[in-house]
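User:
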Amino acid sequence: MATPMVQARSLDLASVLDSDATAIGFSKTESGEFTFPVATSLVRKIEAHFDLVLADELNFFSATGKPGEINEIPVSAQLGAQNCERLILVGLGNQSLSDLRIAGGALGRKVRGKSISLFSIAATSRVELRTHAIALILGSYQWSQKSGVKKSEIPKFLVADTHSAEVLRANTMAQAVCRARDLIHTPSNIKTPAWMAEQAKRLRKKGDITVKVLAGKELHEFGGLQAVGNSSPHPGPRFVEISYTPRGSKNWPHVVLVGKGITFDTGGISLKRPYETMIGMKSDMAGAATVLAVVGAMPDISPKVRVTALLMCAENALSSTAQRPGDVITHYDGTTVEVINTDAEGRLVLADGLAYADLKLDPDYLLDIATLTGAATLGLGRQYAAMYTRNTALAKKLHEYGESSGDRVWHMPLIDDYQVALQSSIADLKHTADKPKFSAGSVTAALFLEHFVGKRKWVHLDIAGPARSESDSGENPKGGTGFGVRLLIDWIAGLR
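Assistant: Predicted structure:
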């Protein structure tokens, strides 16, 4: 589906009248008074033009002012509305960034699938404008293969902008999130590892990006990726390396992002139960989708940072060539691992990617992102990703960027007492704990991955919860959310 764009307009009555609809943000004080915190003078002109008192209209609707609340007022063309057919009063809550995101998401959903222009008067400062503009686009997101959907019908968003750079940045970031969402929503009969590699190759048309793909015998050193992916030999697994390396970037900081790219997950021989849990497993490559979208946005963001994305792509299928519990595999760095549960396949492919990054790419920062464990979802729900790192300063910075971007993360402990759960009598490691007393599945998964990162500044993001939404909520559609794209772009752009 085509992605809407945000455009800048002057903060004046002419912009209101030229738009099909105008959204006006409002709040409600503790005393019950309605206020219009943005462009009060323009609001008064709108009231005068249409012979309305907006506070009276809100009283009629019994408006609460909660973020995302929508009240519509049709306006008459006879009053000189020109194109404008309705005013939309949208609640801003306490006007926090979170509330502005909710308001933007609600407006986006209100007009999605409609070929209309919406002028939003809800934010003014740089960060508020960018936050709200991104939310407008993300709220309007839709993905469908229904034959009756007209793909050309998308809204156009307009914002009052005195900071044109923020509109450009908002479009870039929203486009990146939507790119990740498109990849996640694509059904797995189309989205094979080879297909993912082809999507990565499309980034070559952007400047300063190179793409390398390994397949077949070229993967002989990637024991984890082969063990998982050879269960579906046609087309088989793919290792995809995407690099953003502008001329003169040799001495810039180097960030390596490793994304889990399981294009469908049956659980393998350790078959998922109940079976309906497989329905959403086309989204098990959300980590790979995120890092692809992030590195694809780099030519537009232009940070003084080298960025490499590693997509560890495979299908975890049930077949005669599938790995078995009890198998021993050898990872890229030579570590031998005893397989315990074939449904814990994500850490096996990530281990190869992390080891490759450590041994071959010399990263200043190494970060992996994956829909890894149900345990993370049980602990944090769907609003926060579990973040693991021993670098407290880096954790603090990512937490701050998460709160401001909307991709929120929570620093979790790497508990060394649990290392014993990964001890094997026949290999260097077990890849998952098999003792009931070690129920901290997200922690032991992170401890396993840590064995492959050397002494790098490393972060593990377990996004099993926020990577997928069960309903339209906030800025997110039902399905893949594109979690992590905004967080990682903001973090990379802020590195020096």
